[in-house]
Design brief:
By secondary structure, the protein is an alpha+beta fold. About 15% of the residues lie in helices and about 45% in strands. The strands form 2 sheets. Strands 2-3-5-6 form a 4-stranded antiparallel sheet. The chain has a two-stranded antiparallel ribbon with strand order 1-4. About 10% of the residues are buried.
Length: about 120
Amino acid sequence: MEKLYADSTGKGAALKQYAASAALINAEADAKSMHRRNLVTTGEVTVGRPTVTKLDINRKIPNATLSSCLDVSRWQVINSATKKPAALPPERLTKYVIVSTVERWPEGWRVIRDEPQEQKC
């Protein structure tokens, strides 16, 4: 995700190695929307306290649901034309709970859904 949002061309992100279905479609659409507004990101995102809340390995395609703390506090949104920080709402959450659904594909685990919870962590 960091690479996708950081590079307005989207090259080098290799997101298909990690995401599929709605998660992939939504991430690509969000990044494209940012890039159309000349916005990119710098810095890093961290995921803390991942907890498996549901696991179903007896399905044809095993899946799991995870709850994590997504920390974007060190991720800065920059105007790619001016190289200056973009104005963001001061009340926005920078550390929040995210619930992700992953599936085990032959090539490895893929995130198929990410749902930010509008809840601090």
